[in-house]
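hey can u run this one w/ beta-D-glucopyranose bound, need the structure tokens asap thx
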Amino acid sequence: MITALLALQVLLLAAGCGQSERSEPASRIKIGISVYDQYDTFISSMMDSFNRLVEEEKSGGKQITLEFYDAAGSQKQQDMQAREMIEDGCRAICINLVDRTAPTTIIDLARKNNVAVVFFNRELVEEDLLQFDKLYYVGADAFQSGILQGEIAAAACAGRDNPADRNGDGSIQYVVLEGEAGHQDAIVRTETSVDTLIKSGVQLDKVGYAIANWNRAQAQTKMSQLIDQYGDRIELVLANNDDMALGAIDAYRARSIDLQDRPLIFGIDGTAVGLEAIRSHEMAGTVYNDKDGQAKAMLELALRLAQQEPIDDLDMIDGKYIRLPYTGITAKNADEFE
Ligand code: BGC
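ok here u go:
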């Protein structure tokens, strides 16, 4: 996280964020990016990746100027940032919407100024994406992440006398830690993960759930309340992302509950901290959310759009979407990811 923040700060300085740079030579490619919250673990690791790739392109001879903005959870602020990027001469901008149901101001600005927009990670509805022909989306398929989490969890919970069923009642008592309400990844991940477990033949018994907004500290508080309520009845925790799974682990650690007396805990993302928890067996599994692939696709698309180069050879769905596949991770293959 610290590396990510440092990198972002360097970029903010390098970009002279918010300052006009209209005197750039014409050969420079200028792109802008705004994230919904730079302190989000997944987003900050994706930005690390993005920055690395920009540096690689620069050392390969491309003259790129990148303007980086943090919307800090405010859609209004992000709308202003988009305006600033466009006024500064960015020909393509990358937007991680704060409110995925409110892209209209940015789309109107883009259309008026004929600027391309690559939305990423927080998916706007198709109707909005079709409002202008220079709008694109880079992300992943939420259904796939839920299915993979469910499959990994089912492999750990299935079968007679499985250790996950600690009270031996033949069914697995579980809780869900959910991401931000309204986010495309939150509800879909929960539903498909649970459906997959059921289809795999695991008897499930839902004992509770809490919304923890992708956030580790909130998840620790919520998990602590669930432990107060249900104690050692909880045998399985399905978290919509790694940070919330880690928050659940924090709650058990804070009570000094030994690993063998904790439920199986699953996340999604495969962040560096998540992978560490898999290696120490505190997290039973996660699903890799391909930050590198998404950063690469986003940069490639933005650079081409900014230079008005063709994009028809890119691997796109309906000429508008790029979705990178997820991969399941357990302790067995954790070392293949970084
Ligand atoms: C990630 C979360 C992240 C969220 C932000 C999701 O795809 O799994 O970790 O907080 O995106 O929008």
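Residues 40, 42-43, 121-122, 183, 185, 214, 241, 268-269, 289 surround beta-D-glucopyranose (CB under 6 Å). anyway lmk if its weird
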